[in-house]
Design goal:
Layout (H helix, E strand, L loop, with lengths): L1 H29 L8 H24 L9 H28 L1
Keywords: Membrane, Transmembrane, Transmembrane helix
Organism: Sphingomonas hengshuiensis
Protein name: Osmotic-shock protein
Length: 100
């Protein structure tokens, strides 16, 4: 059971970093620091958007429309933090307690 929790922890870390990179990339594109005329930047941005869009979609349906601001990445990061900081350690403690 602990191996499964470790795998979930690693996957959550990977998703966290993907969201951070995608958010920074979108900010840099919005302020025209980098542009999507570069093939590598365009493909990287599209790939990250393809990965994160299924995660953001249900949250965007719940959140009100803030215009140009998108709070879905921040909500997902908070949820990942709650999972990593509260829920997964509680599950780990519960599984350890059952085997003792």
């Amino acid at each position: 059971m602990n191996v499964l929790l470790d795998i979930i922890q690693v996957l959550l870390n990977v998703v966290w970093w993907i969201i951070i990179v995608q958010a920074l990339l979108s900010i840099l594109i919005a302020f025209n620091v980098i542009n999507t005329h570069n093939d590598f930047i365009r493909s990287l941005y599209r790939g990250l958007a393809t990965v994160t869009e299924p995660i953001y979609r249900p949250i965007r349906r719940i959140l009100p429309d803030f215009g140009a601001l998108d709070f879905a990445p921040f909500v997902v990061l908070v949820l990942i933090g709650i999972l990593q900081g509260i829920i997964l350690p509680a599950i780990y403690r519960a599984t350890v307690a059952t085997f003792i």
